[in-house]
UniProtKB/TrEMBL annotation:
This is G-protein coupled receptors family 1 profile domain-containing protein. The keyword Membrane applies. It is a multi-pass membrane protein. Keywords: G-protein coupled receptor, Membrane, Receptor, Transducer, Transmembrane, Transmembrane helix. Pfam families: 7tm_1. Belongs to the G-protein coupled receptor 1 family. GO terms for cellular component: plasma membrane. InterPro entries: GPCR_Rhodpsn, GPCR_Rhodpsn_7TM. It comes from Paragonimus westermani.
Length: 395
């Protein structure tokens, strides 16, 4: 879980990238990792490890865990940081999807605005707002005197232990809204609109370039004002650029769709079970502590933890350059890792030969070079600028 997020952070290199989307993805890796750390402190220690140690009779370890994680001050801080990083993780996905939504729907208007500097400012504001929103968790516990879990021959020692109060139950209901319901609605709307926009562009492309049109000639404008060739002929550089842009947009759509679907599938059970448990705890009932409800609660928490670690797998499945960089890192091709990270930093489409992944550094065969005319370079560069999607679309 942790290694995948850390590898994502290393490969994306947010402090040197010129792509705002990679900053959000790197921040998402950090927030997911911290969420997992505090999630393990809360869920694993309190609900899994302590009951297991009770059954084994390891009371000294139980006392140690309760003193370190359920004592005054530490209890509030642990829960506060747990929900803070969980909220930041979820809303980073929302911000990333909304940025992609703006770039797809109106690229000319937002492309020059949505830059790395704005991404850092956005993440700073998100952290500030999430920190203020999570403040009630600092006041969500009361304290009662408890005796240590001891044997009959041991001396009785008491300590203060945190117990949830009314603020805790209200905060959990608010959490269900801010971490699951609202983000889910925004993700569905944004990704649906992205899919509709890309589908409309594809239809326009197919109308302008029907499959049966194979012998089209250059069409010169009669007024001579532009004196341009029809740039969207099937064999033209512009057409190739549009096809490259379509492939990038298709990969982007698949990636965002997978992130949204995975988030909904893995987070919805947790939201439902948290609401049910909150109701039972507010009514001072204990029906949820055993039986099917307890089992469902544990399964839903496991699914939510999986959601915090699965983004790395999504990047590997949908990101060709990311997958290559990861394999080069695993096989210690450091020069190739550096080159592919540079590709991710700039957003330029990767032209690395597939065979390079099978050679060690310094062993690559010499590549053949072909002379190009200056006009060919100018036309290629102009076509790439006009037809390719923004570099944020590559991963």
């Amino acid at each position: 879980m942790f290694s995948g997020n850390l590898l994502s952070l290393y490969i994306l290199h947010p402090f040197r990238t010129r792509i705002s989307g990679h900053i959000y993805l790197a921040c998402l890796a950090v927030f997911d990792t911290l969420s997992l750390v505090f999630y393990m402190m809360s869920f694993w220690n309190i609900l899994v490890l302590i009951p297991y140690l009770y059954q084994r009779g390891n009371y000294d370890t139980v006392n140690l865990i309760q003193r370190h994680f359920m004592s005054q001050g530490r209890c509030e801080l642990r829960v506060y940081l747990n929900f803070l990083f969980r909220m930041l993780s979820v809303w980073t996905v929302v911000v990333l999807s909304m940025e992609r939504f703006l770039l797809i729907v109106s690229p000319l208007r937002f492309y020059k605005v949505l830059r790395p500097r704005l991404a850092w400012i956005t993440m700073g504001l998100c952290a500030l707002i999430a920190g203020l929103t999570s403040t009630p968790w600092l006041f969500s516990f009361s304290y009662v005197e408890k005796y240590q879990c001891i044997t009959a021959t041991s001396p009785q020692v008491s300590y203060l232990r945190c117990v949830p109060n009314e603020i805790f139950f209200a905060s959990r209901l608010i959490e269900c809204t801010l971490i699951t319901i609202v983000p889910a609605v925004l993700l569905l709307v944004a990704n649906t609109q992205i899919a509709i926009t890309l589908s409309q562009r594809r239809k326009i492309w197919l109308r302008m370039n029907p499959p049966e049109k194979t012998d089209s000639k250059a069409v010169v404008q009669p007024d001579g004002s532009s004196a341009q060739i029809h740039a969207l002929e099937p064999d033209s550089l512009m057409a190739e650029g549009h096809r490259t842009a379509q492939r990038s947009e298709r990969r982007l759509t698949i990636r965002l769709f997978m992130v949204a679907v995975v988030f909904l599938v893995l987070s919805t059970p947790s939201m439902i079970l948290v609401a049910v448990h909150t109701y039972y705890e507010y009514q001072h009932k204990k029906n949820h502590l055993r039986g099917p409800l307890a089992d469902a609660h544990f399964i839903s928490q496991l699914l939510f933890a999986t959601n915090l670690a699965i983004n790395f797998i999504i990047y590997c499945v949908t990101g060709r350059t990311f997958r290559r960089a990861l394999w080069a890192l695993i096989t210690c091709r450091w020069r190739l890792v550096k080159r592919l990270r540079s590709v991710l930093e700039t957003g330029i489409e990767d032209q690395t030969d597939e065979n390079e992944l099978t050679y060690r550094d310094g062993d690559q065969p010499a590549k053949k070079t072909h002379s190009k005319s200056p006009m060919s370079d100018v036309n290629s560069d102009k076509t790439r600028r006009q037809s390719q999607s923004p570099p944020e679309l590559e991963l």
